[in-house]
Specification:
- There is one protein chain.
- By secondary structure, the chain is α+β, with helices and mostly antiparallel strands.
- The protein has four helices and four strands.
- A four-stranded mixed beta sheet has the order 2-1-3-4.
- It starts with a helix and ends in a 10-residue tail after the last helix.
Length: 195
Amino acid sequence: MTLEEKLAQMQSASMEQARAEGNAIIDSHREALEKVFEDHKAEALRQAETRIKAETTNARLSLNQAAAKSQLEIKRRQGKVQQELKDKIFEEAASLVNDYMKTEAYNDFLIRCIRQAVHFAGEDPVVIYINPSDEKKRSDLEDATRVRLTISAEDFIGGVRAVIRSRNILIDNSFKTQLRDQYDKFMLLGGDGIA
């Protein structure tokens, strides 16, 4: 084998070895890059999932806030409508009371209230007040009950109030008090039975 052949063989072997080493370096670098790419891809997926979860949570929170705000507005409107209906009902009730006060049944009611107050007072002195609007009925009521009546300085719509000072008792059969008590207790129920 000649020197030139040996050199060519050595050159060929060196080239083979350099190619093998180069290919090994390239494969190693490729594997490292693929691992970096896979790690980057996995991290990007984790970040995307975290962002999706955060956005979903924010969207639910926004939806819940909007729903709560809508429910509050509905309740406010419902309360306003209920108050308007309640006021209208009690305006009609006041009108019915006014009509009732023009009947003979109202006179019987006054006589009954006066007698009950006198009976309750027993031997104690009692002051019985009638409403200023009933002043014209005073003498007829006094004749029917044999009780001296006092015209109230305060308009309590109708009915009777009696005071037994010795026992600190007020017997309040006035329409004003009865209407106010009923107004305060009155609750308009919705179609589902919920106030």
